[in-house]
UniProtKB/TrEMBL annotation:
Pathway the protein contributes to: Amino-acid biosynthesis; L-proline biosynthesis; L-glutamate 5-semialdehyde from L-glutamate: step 1/2
Entry-linked Gene3D superfamilies: Acetylglutamate kinase-like
E.C. no: 2.7.2.11
SUPFAM superfamilies, per database record: Carbamate kinase-like (SSF53633)
Organism phylogeny: Bacteria, Pseudomonadati, Bacteroidota, Saprospiria, Saprospirales
Entry similarity comment: Belongs to the glutamate 5-kinase family.
Protein residues bound to ATP: 8
Identification of the protein by name: Glutamate 5-kinase
Localization terms from the record: Cytoplasm
Catalysis performed (reactions): L-glutamate + ATP = L-glutamyl 5-phosphate + ADP
GO terms, molecular function: glutamate 5-kinase activity
InterPro entries assigned to the protein according to its UniProt record, in alphabetical order: AceGlu_kinase-like_sf (IPR036393), Asp/Glu/Uridylate_kinase (IPR001048), G5K_ProB (IPR041739), Glu/AcGlu_kinase (IPR001057), Glu_5kinase (IPR011529), Glu_5kinase/COase_Synthase (IPR005715)
Gene that produces this protein: proB
Length: 253
């Protein structure tokens, strides 16, 4: 039974195919998270979706270039995203908190210590930290590859019992997902390089990461003693069975 977990939810779980926020699915995820909290599980949510939420609010003039466009979209979208989380968690009498971090904050030093202390204090107060990369300032090579990498760092910082990574696929398949003859791989050993051959090049629409990054982060995190559960965030009640039944995705450990 996991007592402390990190749950990372990707853009494709939080947004619809047209890029707008999928409020219905976000609401279902918050319901499940509230259920875990009610069972006494301490958790941190890593949420993408800021750029997606921004896209819903504004069409940004392309003349500014890609970096400025991403900054503007994430800056306005992060507010929209947190507004939604605040309302949904309040419906369960829960408080949530916004935590924005950059890659540099995870280097040993004052920022690392401050972040660690902040997480401890929030969790002590039964608040749900909702973490995203600070996309407004993380615009160069100092960026995380994606939020999977951020989630792995937070998992190690807090030495949690498990890292759950939810995307729009069930997990790692031994062939193209959805094609007959492809099977879900239930368990992968942290050091098993052979599974990398199964990774499809094609990424699902909006998110920055992909299965290759997920596996790389999962292997690193599992080697640090934290099992990683890959699963489909659009599957009903996927989180409810956490630690109880067989996980319906891929476990890397
Ligand atoms: N931080 C980005 C956002 O909130 C997403 C990064 C990713 O796709 O992992 O939109």
């Amino acid at each position: 039974m996991y007592k402390r977990v990190i749950i990372k939810v990707g853009t494709n779980v939080l947004t619809r195919p047209d890029g707008r926020l999928d409020v219905t699915n976000i609401s279902h995820l918050v319901d499940q998270i509230a259920g875990l909290k009610a069972r006494g599980i301490s958790l941190v949510l890593i949420s993408s979706g800021a750029v997606g939420a921004g896209r819903e609010l504004l069409t940004v003039d392309d003349s500014f270039g890609d970096v400025a466009r991403r900054q503007v979209l994430s800056a306005i979208g992060q507010v929209r995203l947190m507004e939604l989380y605040r309302q949904l968690f309040a419906g369960h009498d829960l408080l949530c908190a916004q935590v924005l971090a950059t890659k540099g904050d995870f280097r040993a030093g004052l920022h690392y210590d401050n972040l660690h202390n902040c997480f401890r204090a929030l969790l002590q107060d039964q608040i749900v930290p909702v973490v995203n990369e600070n996309d407004v300032i993380a615009v160069t090579e100092l960026m995380f590859t994606d939020n999977d990498e951020l989630a792995g760092q937070v998992a190690k910082m807090l030495a949690v019992d498990a890292l759950v990574i939810l995307s729009s696929v069930d997990g790692l398949y031994d062939g193209p997902p959805g094609e007959s003859g492809s099977h879900l791989i239930r368990e992968v050993a942290a050091g098993d390089q052979s599974v990398l051959g199964f990774v499809q090049e094609k990424k699902t629409s909006f998110g920055r990461g992909g299965m290759a990054t997920k596996l790389r982060i999962a292997a690193q995190t599992a080697k640090a003693g934290i099992p990683v559960l890959l699963g489909n965030g659009r599957r009903r009640n996927i989180l409810t069975g956490l630690g109880r039944d067989q996980w319906p995705g891929t476990i890397v450990k």
